[in-house]
From TrEMBL, chains A, B, C, D:
This is GuaB3 family IMP dehydrogenase-related protein. PANTHER family: INOSINE-5'-MONOPHOSPHATE DEHYDROGENASE, INOSINE-5-MONOPHOSPHATE DEHYDROGENASE RELATED. CDD domains: IMPDH (cd00381). Coiled coil: none annotated. SMART domains: IMPDH. Residues 17-308 form the IMP dehydrogenase/GMP reductase domain. Belongs to the IMPDH/GMPR family. It holds the Pfam family IMPDH. It comes from the Bacteria.
Amino acid sequence: MSNEIEIGRGKRATKAYSLDDVAIVPNRRTRDPKDVSVSWQIDAFAFETPILGAPMDSVTSPATAIALGKLGGLGVLNLEGLWTRYENPEPVLAEIAGLRSEASTRNDSKITAKLQELYAAPIQPELIGTRLAEIRESGVVVAGSLTPQRTKEYSQAVIDAGVDIFVIRGTTVSAEHVSQNTEPLNLKQFIYELDVPVIVGGAAGYTPAMHLMRTGAAGVLVGFGGGASSTTRRTLGIHAPMATAIADVAAARRDYIEETGGRYVHVIADGGLGNSGDIVKAIAMGADAVMLGTALARAEEAPGAGYHWGMEAVHEVSPRGDRAQIGTVGSLEHVLYGPSHETNGTSNLVGALRRSMATTGYSTLKEFQRVDVVLSPYESDRF
Amino acid sequence: MSNEIEIGRGKRATKAYSLDDVAIVPNRRTRDPKDVSVSWQIDAFAFETPILGAPMDSVTSPATAIALGKLGGLGVLNLEGLWTRYENPEPVLAEIAGLRSEASTRNDSKITAKLQELYAAPIQPELIGTRLAEIRESGVVVAGSLTPQRTKEYSQAVIDAGVDIFVIRGTTVSAEHVSQNTEPLNLKQFIYELDVPVIVGGAAGYTPAMHLMRTGAAGVLVGFGGGASSTTRRTLGIHAPMATAIADVAAARRDYIEETGGRYVHVIADGGLGNSGDIVKAIAMGADAVMLGTALARAEEAPGAGYHWGMEAVHEVSPRGDRAQIGTVGSLEHVLYGPSHETNGTSNLVGALRRSMATTGYSTLKEFQRVDVVLSPYESDRF
Amino acid sequence: MSNEIEIGRGKRATKAYSLDDVAIVPNRRTRDPKDVSVSWQIDAFAFETPILGAPMDSVTSPATAIALGKLGGLGVLNLEGLWTRYENPEPVLAEIAGLRSEASTRNDSKITAKLQELYAAPIQPELIGTRLAEIRESGVVVAGSLTPQRTKEYSQAVIDAGVDIFVIRGTTVSAEHVSQNTEPLNLKQFIYELDVPVIVGGAAGYTPAMHLMRTGAAGVLVGFGGGASSTTRRTLGIHAPMATAIADVAAARRDYIEETGGRYVHVIADGGLGNSGDIVKAIAMGADAVMLGTALARAEEAPGAGYHWGMEAVHEVSPRGDRAQIGTVGSLEHVLYGPSHETNGTSNLVGALRRSMATTGYSTLKEFQRVDVVLSPYESDRF
Amino acid sequence: MSNEIEIGRGKRATKAYSLDDVAIVPNRRTRDPKDVSVSWQIDAFAFETPILGAPMDSVTSPATAIALGKLGGLGVLNLEGLWTRYENPEPVLAEIAGLRSEASTRNDSKITAKLQELYAAPIQPELIGTRLAEIRESGVVVAGSLTPQRTKEYSQAVIDAGVDIFVIRGTTVSAEHVSQNTEPLNLKQFIYELDVPVIVGGAAGYTPAMHLMRTGAAGVLVGFGGGASSTTRRTLGIHAPMATAIADVAAARRDYIEETGGRYVHVIADGGLGNSGDIVKAIAMGADAVMLGTALARAEEAPGAGYHWGMEAVHEVSPRGDRAQIGTVGSLEHVLYGPSHETNGTSNLVGALRRSMATTGYSTLKEFQRVDVVLSPYESDRF
């Protein structure tokens, strides 16, 4: 019953599970995929599909934020990335895509050094306004993200530019950051004073998520940032297996509803959701929506042009990720809605979610969070 | 005792096991392989060997259904495949076998697109009659399969043509399919009105299997379709490890016998039984018979000509499988009865089953379902 | 506490462990390797080292049986192998070593067919006498093996030729073999009437081992035959993880001592002991001695000339093993006693056993059976 | 709760975990990395960073001991290695680095034989003085190591030369070594009579560590020597998974404090800490400091010149390790303090430790030993 394991005398660990460890199983009833709804609503904003584009330069540009919005999702622009550091980031993106790996694509220190150099260009606050305005003009919901470290410095620029949803995203974001050098961001006060809903994270457990919920956030990102391109476990020893993390944060959501007499904070799985099966399982674990990196970076429109990297990969002194080559699958619409000619879960993401829900007999995402799950480590094909 | 595991706070999963996770162990008595019977009977039909050929175009043609019947098994013809879409499917089969993979054989979207195109040809109901008649003329037991989605449309053609055993097979088949658009098949009524025994599935758990048994089916297929060529877990997040699935459905059989005062519904393992060891273990888990894809597709007579694919691989919008290259081992007789020169369980399938039963001291399939089992993950050879 | 796991409703399995799953750990005291004894005695025969050469044609010839005997161990000649089928087996051995694999060395059906053909030559009973006489002349302990199937036919020839230790070895040997066609060997009576000590097996569990002990055997082989070259799990679905098997049979030995008021039956681990670490762990699990195949087939003197295969690989209709290429390490003396220049446990087998016992503070094999053990799956090196 | 597992009837094992099996997880509070202290003090010696250079010839020379000391750590010179066997070991090191592997770099018996030959040169006691004097002149803390087997013979030379910290290090060191041939080292008396603090090990469990603590040692090394280059498990069957070993020894430290009314013995993880994540997890398991081999051998200044081997690899009769090719990452300062351009945890080791502590909200190493841990086997990237 308890998940506490004794590692050695007096040192206990909690057994945690990845999405690869679990799978969903059909139960009695089946349903027509056409009768399934995958719509999602946060605050006043309704979306046809519960997919957010991660604020990563390989995934979300103003153009892909607009495209994703028109296709029913929500693109979140990284306001500390290339789009606010360069007037014209296109040549920089081309340069990154053009970097040739000398050894393997993993841990190429020359590529990492080049990324670090390109991201050392200063943020130009006026570009924050320019980029958000471009998205707003298209008519889609506008969302931009800052890290907690820079929220105080740049949030006014964001507010002035106008966003519908404000995202505060870091590898690990806590409601109580301690520093002797700088006065840290008071999340609770910041959110209270802000007029727009805030999504904040990553959090990877019950307690930190509960604390973030108590700041007044509309949504909490579950995860530690990164997925395909992350090396946090190897470099920092930190790892938060997603199946357990999502279930724990969903439990915090349930308890917070009771604590507040009804306030519903959305749980958004963020990181390591590389194919449609992962998305299905994230919802099954209790997520309301998913924030995708790799999966959307495979779109033809993605700025990464077949490559993918996160902000942790460009950290000035402690890079914890790589520029990963992920290839291109088809248009963003093809990736989301198919029809698919790929059999590895890289296209028709929404169709697959719909089909899984139908096969197990559920008609809404909220109900689908209760689907039966088996624990069964991923087997490599042996044929 | 309980197999319930806590994935995260409040989210539980059932620990499930694959056939690779288990093995059988000899107990006290041994027996002469010649004294072992592997015969199987369903309804009025007796078979020397408990092997069914899967209704997949790479496995079962009218010719191989006849050959398998003469060798003591039962070939099930897919009545929605190439044989009912093309007057002469031979060139189509040749074209599929001739498709060259540009990258690896897995997830080649061009091959998938070509398969989708070839299977977009309409079903010609009159060919259902032609194909079944061809099998009937040979004198073997005649069996054909439809998906639940098309059973209403084509079942009359099948009945008119005449079958001995009617198979309704889909990735997941439930006794209660819900749709707002089309009136779904009422399995119970359909089976009640039909004159021939029906085998239906796949089902992958106790409850859905019990509901299928209550429809009056003579047999239930255990599994989710596909095996070697399936990517359902990656695309849909759905997975039903076979050892657990078979044992659960066998438990439903036992309870259903009690519930009905003696009605015995046959449990047929379907999917992922690639070699003789898998067949042995499927029976050990409680199966009465096995439906084989890959294992029979390796026969020289198999229409796939060294390739194997399932209906899920040709789905028009959500393909969940690949055309897998599996090679050819020898004649169908060699595959079933040897003598074997292969040491990987790809030939003499029936001989291996017989030998395993003898080594553990059992003389009938029914008794062999009680053999001792160990849980021990498959180790890769390290020499 | 219990090792019973529920695979599915009502189907239980026993969790079983391989030698790779376990390791020994040093406890408080350490000891000088020179003070350690690895001597072993069975019946009236004392050996400096607890190592038996497996009755496999790639391992034991009359010459290597003599060499192993002179080095303190016991070579067991297979009396149904090439040495009793051919007047001069040397060219046959050379032919086997010279077979070129067309694809990989595993599951090459042409090589298997050739082996089957070479082993189809009839056994010449007079050669049994010739071979055993050759060993006897050298002055070492003489041991030969038959399978249970052929013990009735050839045992008189063996007895006439004279052996010190009689070995009855098959994949699975039970005390109660049932056959409707031939009258099976009555092991108990056979052993009772025989004048020499009998070692019999393989047995892989408590109950079958206890029954073999009750036949009056002096030693029981633990295992299912084969190791590096075996494919029994894939072909027959049978597998008996060695750590659990040895511990279970050792428990039978302990209970049998009590049952008989003191009769000690030796437990000999047989199969899958490829390097010195495996030998150490087999003793730690409770074995009194080890029967080695691969490990000795790596000696320069070994008849296999760098290749290794078992009798199950040459079975006329159900081959369950391969001719495996294992290479050559050095002289038999080097393999047993070093000094070693190999770091993978393929040489100085006895020195390694001695060192492990010293590091954990034990001075005799019998005491070492109580050493502390950890359960920790083998990790592949990640550097 | 208990970690006791039944391997077979009556044979129990303790489940043990490697560092790869665990990871740390952020909890509520986060902290500024600048506010984190990684300082460590043993006896009268304070260090900025809790990193010891292993006494291995590929890692620590007099020059790198000085360099590591100036960078805030402690280099321990192996006083039985090349630096005390050769007046000028540089050509020997160059020869080792120049050995070309004929097959793979693992288990090349020719390389092992060459290493054995080079290490067969006798130890020249006067060189012990020369080497330690060279380190002392630089002003850093001086530490040298002997094996228990040679401590009696050479300790006087070490004492005469003068060391600040005396290290006694072997694969397994026990407080009670038994020998019938030579009078073993009486550790307790030796340490009592010695004027300088002693660090002793490896020990891999609660009991042996407790006994070593009772000898009066200032610190205990946890582990079995070796890591990347070790083959102890394969050769001797001995393995002590590090996460469990460290936690067990930390528990002995806690109990020993109580037993003595306050004596604190430092726990130093030694072996298998190849990247920064491993260092983080070793502290999290309860270590006060870490002794690094591979991780420091990757420095440009390292004497191994891109290769790494331990004393167990050069053992005259039982080599249990290889010369492993590990490559070079950058200067020692870069390896320790970055800034990093590597994303695999091979540089900025101290920065990573600092960042992990900050992310989980801890400000001292001692507090960080209480960080939350999850059990989650290392997943290979599947993208």
